Amino acid sequence: MKKYILLPAMMVAAMLSTTAVKAQEDVNPLLKYVNKENDLKASIGGRMFADVAYYHTEWTPMKSGAAITDARIHASLTYGKLFIYADFGFGNGEFSQKNLFAQYTFKESLKGIHLVKAGYYNEPSSMSMMTSSYNYHFISRPSVSQALDPGRSLGATYKFFNKHFFADQGIFSQLKYNEQEEGYQGFSLSGRWLWKPINDNNITLQFGTGLRYQRINGGEVYQDGVYKTNMHVAANMQTYVDETTKFLSCDLPWAKDAFTISPEFLFKSDRVFARGEFIWKKVWKDRDDQTLFESQLGGQQSWTNVEGWRSGNKLRPTIMNGGYVEFGYLLCGKAYTYDDEYGLLKGMGDKGGLELVARYSCTNLTDITDGDIFLIGNHKFYPNGKVVDYPYSSSIDGGTMHSVTLGLNYSFNQYIKIMGEYQYANLSNVYFPDDENFHQLQLRVMFAF
């Protein structure tokens, strides 16, 4: 009797394992090799995105036009429970390394599936960044995810998932090639955990959160052997024909530790989806005040003690945040589908699929101390409403943007899709006082094989 119970269970686990392999590839590859005798499978595929965009701005122009925004070649190899995947990009005329990892399914049971993974891939702390751009329902990810969530890193993770629970966590290096100028490499701890109270063939409802701690160690020599670390935070205007990040960007000198939390939700039925995330990030800073104080002694206007120097060169944490909500309605085509292994909504890819989507997003990279003023001529903040040399202001304004996006997507089949969007964005940034309202129209044609 026991074998009749275990056999269906192992078949389900095997199906989930097969889905896990397919989830890494945008479509079922056209070029495949299967050796059943040795339990070996191999495939080669690729994709290309061609975008056209028109931008209307009030002052600072953006470059309307067309571009090949993404072009990739990928290969995969499955040998028993081992899965190896490599993905390289050629978008915008430049070669770039995308995904390169090995994954092993080491335990399958009635309770769920266990995986280990190592290589170069997205850190598991964000629903938006974990979703493949081919499976995305918008031309661009929300700017808040681009700015505050991590992308690909070199690391290793352990994952467990079943019908109702999902846990993916691991450790990653700060830079994939250890290319910091000085110091030793930093690291991050990332994870994403989900609970799905409802998850069947028709409806999925999930709640969860991502957490990430980042330690920044490498940097550059500032003076007298002091290492100066920096965190650059930036996002484009949710478009890739002109990928400028000047409207939403800032540098956080002396950044040392960063913590990010990103609660999320997802609802999916056959014809409707709704999902969203809120992202909150705090960055703590640290520097060698004693050495920097001693290096300025004897100068024309030197500080006489370290406490005075520190009060004139204030350093405080920076907080940034934002979020988005997205909605979709499938007008034609088969039902929306869900990926248990990644805890994600899959893309629309059936023949004749037509969907209407909408998104609101907010990106806040501004942390200004009460009472500080900004002089555009000097490009500096001054504390307490006074234009003085000291103390330095610790205010940051990387820009705040609210945007609304409406889109209509059509899939000829799983290999060819077309996406169209209109977006209105409202910007507030002291460095661009004359730029407030942005309008853009975008069209994307997508091929995959």
UniProtKB/TrEMBL annotation:
Question: Keywords, A to Z?
Answer: Signal
Q: Which domain of life is it from?
A: Bacteria
Q: Which Pfam families match?
A: Porin_O_P
InterPro entries in the record, alphabetically? Porin_dom_sf, Porin_O/P
What species does this protein belong to? Answer: Butyricimonas virosa
Q: Which residues are listed as membrane-spanning?
A: none
The signal peptide annotation in the UniProt record is 1-23
What is the official name of this protein in its record? Porin
